[in-house]
Amino acid sequence: MELLPLVILIAGIFILRGYNLRIRRLEKRVQGLQNALAGRVLMADAGESVRMTEPAIAAAAGPAAAIQEPPTEAAIKEPTAAGIEEPAVAARNIPDALTDGTLTDDGPDIAAREAPQPRESLESTIGARWAVWVGGIALALGGIFMVKYSIESGLLSPGVRLVLAAIFGLILVAAGEIIRRRSAPVLGNAFQNAMIPGVLTAAGVVALFGSTYAAHGIYGFIGPAMAFVLLGLISLATLALSLHHGQALAGLGLLASMVTPALIASTAPQPWVLFGYLVLTWLATLLASRLRRWLITPSFANALLSLWPMLYVAYSEVVDFTPVTLSMLAMIGGTIFIWPGRYLAATAAKAADGMGTETAADPMQLASTGGWGAFLARPPLGMTLTASIGALAVSLHLLTYSLQSGYPIVDAMFMFAAIVAAVAAFGAGRIHAGWAAILSAVVAVVGVSGVLTNWIAGVEPKSADGIVTMQSMVLYEALGLGGIFVLVGAFFLRRFAEGEKPFAALWSLIMAATPLAIATISFINFGNWTFDWLHGLYGIGLGIVLMALAEWQHRRSSEGLNLPTNILAAGSFGAMVFALHMFAHDAAPTILLPVLGIAYVSAARLRDWPVLPWTMVAALIITMTRIAWQPTIVDPSELGTTPVFNMLLAGYGIPAALAALAAFTVRHSPSVRLRNTLQALASFLVLLTIAILVRHAMNGGVLNDTVPTLGEQSIYTLLAIGASATLMALDLSAASPVFRYGSMALGTLSVILILTLHLLGLNPFITGESTGRIPLFNLLLLGYLLPAIAYGGLALYARNRRPLPYVSMLAVAGAVMALSWATLSVRRLWQGEYIPFWNGFIQGELYSYSVVWLLIGIALLGLGARFEARSLRIASAALVFIAVVKAFLIDMANLEGFLRALSFIGLGAVLIGIGLFYQKILTRKKTTG
């Protein structure tokens, strides 16, 4: 314990050293500012200050002045004591000149024009600066070693030793004050930042603090109460002396003050006394910082004051949250109103954003021109972060302790909400407290989530009524905290919305998202999933309030595109969606969500807020999410088997119809993205509605994930082809990239479907599926001939309207489907209802394939010539080539007798006919050319 003063001394020296480095960096600027304020310049060849007359200053500034009047006797007169002390004090408080708004406009310019001082030599650094620090350490160590020697030698009693140590400390403090008062002017002292008075005072404070603590902790000469009072008085006196000696001594005094309660042992700790003392010490530090415009020391004070509640809660057997909460509220309140308060509002905006523009409503309110994130870096960033993070960390610590140790959760939740609300008010009341706004919202959501998820497991009330009452109180507190964010956000918008647009947008997002997130967490944990009055009314109230604030902000703003207004309107929609889910379940939300979206789209006729039509997009996306979660819309047992007229028609059809209505409503909107998005969603929902109704009808009134049959898949393919034609027609009437590319995407998708499913996966030749008993009107008609006709019609409609490769793809797809229908129909004619490949082939069947393929080739050749479709002529040539290969490879090996001869005769005749046909065409083209 005897080495404790030494430890405190070394810690204080390191703190002083850090502040001294900062003072050294700012020394040159301070000298220039003092020259501007006092009207003196430091002559290069003299060791005294010479006051320049106004003509001399003007002559020095003007380019034509060549002669300077000689200085008068009054000008070289020795400065008075008051003239010496004022610059010295100003130099010791460097942040004043940098942050105070009372400087004249030309002061900083004069300082900027000062010539740079030569770099200080190593000799002067060691001799004039380090010697002072080492001397201060030596003085303190000398006192400690003297006391140690007297103890070991038994020369003096403990009481005499402590008295001598205290006297030694007082002598050092007095010496520091005397030297300070008699010190030379700062402009004549190149080594002012060596801080000889401050070092002596710090050494004396350490000696006083150590002797007082030794009298209590080592020898027991004084009781805890007396030691507490004496140590506190020493700490406060140190803070008072720091007004003359700078931030370093203030930091030492603050550290001593905050450590004092830990050094005084008490069998019955009194939290009210403890936190009252800590807040009083913190307040004294804050007042001193306000007088001297300090920023580092109060940040240090915030961190230490925030550390004590967590130590108290962690190491106390009986905990009282009330003094802890009040201490944090006092810290936030002092930060808002005392220091930095409103002082740095203008300076912070100028420092971080550049030039500020004063508004008529509030001279402290400045326009932010430094970008969207500039307000987050405004000074005093250290004070903002330490106060906000410290208070919020304490609030979370209170909740954690309550959940783990059984502290009344209702009280803990109330105090948590009070601290978070205070930090939120800090973020809304000061334009340099952007991090306070963000962190308070995050901690509010995190804390409420932790409490509502975990608290009930550790609480065992005496009755069920106790559970209900406690649960209701916690929910009210959580929801109330969300409402507070709306109130403080509205306060910020009223004061700063016009000049702080990025910050206002952030607050609009916070006041919309935070209460909605809290309400969602509350509902998930304790809501009634069938019908919830509490959360439903909360959502409706929040939606109305946010929309009213959006209207109010719109009327106050002169801009057409006001981001806070649109964010608030979007938040209102989110709250209404939340309320809708509280009062409706099953199919109702899926059907009513697009209705809510249409209401906001209709509101866009009254207010041209860009976000209002986009709410319909959000409503449709949420609707499709619900459909993906429950494709049957209602419970599958309640769906029924009636085709078309069932809940699927309402659950899919109403959103599709409203989506189409919304797309029609915004068809003249200047937003191309909005129009395209709604058109795409409407098209998709219409197709999805038809497809799901087909699926339901084709599977006997049951929706499942089984593989579709060829008949069902054929309907989907026909739907895709029809939708492609419909979108093409819409694009021709009202040009839209959604319709243009959507039509081609659907056409391509349908081609992929026939290649993978119609021809391979679901082909009755491969699967063995029944083709039906009726010869012509059977599965082959639906699966192949109708798609072939549809592709032919789509290709004809797309001709000269769509790219040639796309049209050719459709034409070839139609030809392939027609060939497949004819080929499979031939097989059905010979094989019957079932045509699987494992049944083998008949000679007449093989010959029929050649005849049909050649006829189809001739037909394609004729169509290609009629419509001048090169793709059809190529398809004809390919088909004829296949027939030739078949004749020579298959027919020659498998056919016999008359059928073999007839096959080759027919093939030869067709090939000769095709040759004559092409010769006629070529001759006609040559004659025309």
TrEMBL record:
It comes from the Bacteria. InterPro entries: DUF2339_TM, UCP035905_mem. The chain crosses the membrane at residues 6-23, 130-147, 159-179, 191-215, 221-241, 248-266, 272-288, 295-315, 321-340, 381-403, 409-428, 435-457, 473-493, 505-527, 533-549, 561-581, 587-604, 611-629, 649-666, 678-694, 714-732, 744-762, 774-797, 804-826, 846-865, 872-892, 898-918. Keywords: Membrane, Transmembrane, Transmembrane helix. This is Uncharacterized membrane protein.
